[in-house]
Amino acid sequence: xxxxxxxxxxxxxxxxxxxxxxxxxxxxxxxxxxxxxxxxxxxxxxxxxxxxxxxxxxxxxxxxxxxxxxxxxxxxxxxxxxxxxxxxxxxxxxxxxxxxxxxxxxxxxxxxxxxxxxxxxxxxxxxxxxxxxxxxxxxxxxxxxxxxxxxxxxxxxxxxxxxxxxxxxxxxxxxxxxxxxxxxxxxxxxxxxxxxxxxxxxxxxxxxxxxxxxxxxxxxxxxxxxxxxxxxxxxxxxxxxxxxxxxxxxxxxxxxxxxxxxxxxxxxxxxxxxxxxxxxxxxxxxxxxxxxxxxxxxxxxxxxxxxxxxxxxxxxxxxxxxxxxxxxxxxxxxxxxxxxxxxxxxxxxxxxxxxxxxxxxxxxxxxxxxxxxxxxxxxxxxxxxxxxxxxxxxxxxxxxxxxxxxxxxxxxxxxxxxxxxxxxxx
Length: 426
Known about the structure:
The protein is α/β, with parallel strands linked by helices. The chain has twelve helices and 16 strands.
């Protein structure tokens, strides 16, 4: 009888110890992972998450074997550390899944989807100011806009400052397409540029090396612009091709310019495109665009109440493709390979192709309206060379030096640039 009681006592103590160790293990992992996510802002994951409310961990015991059996020495050998927290994991315990979730909730990736929706709203601010604004709020908004305008003045108003900086240097123009050369429209396939804008871009390219840098498929953006004398960088710079005609710029590489750093991802992109088309067809207004080396999920025509459902569908698909990442633009989700290549890298590649890799004789000017253009703005700021010009009617956090409000002002700026150049040549 005493032997039986002692055996039962041992079983109870073993269960308590196992519970205590697992609890301590979870607490340690939770603290470490939460710290890691906050520090890295999930930049190496499929989506940027601005806040982490909690981490849910699902753990399964793969064996019923006692943690304190005679094999304890051989079983407790899998060790690791998270953010300076060291712990030991027995072989009998496997971490199956780690994902952001509401603490105490059973929604799995609910926090992640909510974070996406918040990010979608932030990346797609309303174009019309609310009329139901209190005087104090309105005054604060005006002050903030004035402050922003001082830091990012109009490129038209500061035109002389820009041209003065170009003395003795070759200006190279980089232009985004949607929202810069053409207005943002409901149907992406109808984002046509005006004949007047095409004429202005053609005139600019006559005097300055000019590149179109777009998230669109290169062939698609070329079908909109229809100017063979330009450089085209499609798919956020992952598909670059130079002018078909002989290059007239003296420093430029005379070989045909072609760069496709993400070629190996094309089959995967095609596969994900087909899956997303099927998964999102039930969401009214959603549209998936295949840009060859990346994908765009347009939600401009999706009601805001359906954004969470759309984000969840995209999330579920991308969970199976860790080599793809998600970024956001103006009413669009961008799915790209995780390689270190973006519009900023495309800008650097094109400058090198033009013979200005490490030159002080060049002044790059990049005009764009989207969050993805920030990579190029940052390159210019880090180089301390050239200017980024943001196209926006509302203040945004940006690395650009100047601003323009809409494509009409972009056209005005381009025309003034051509007029100034012609005067200098007289």
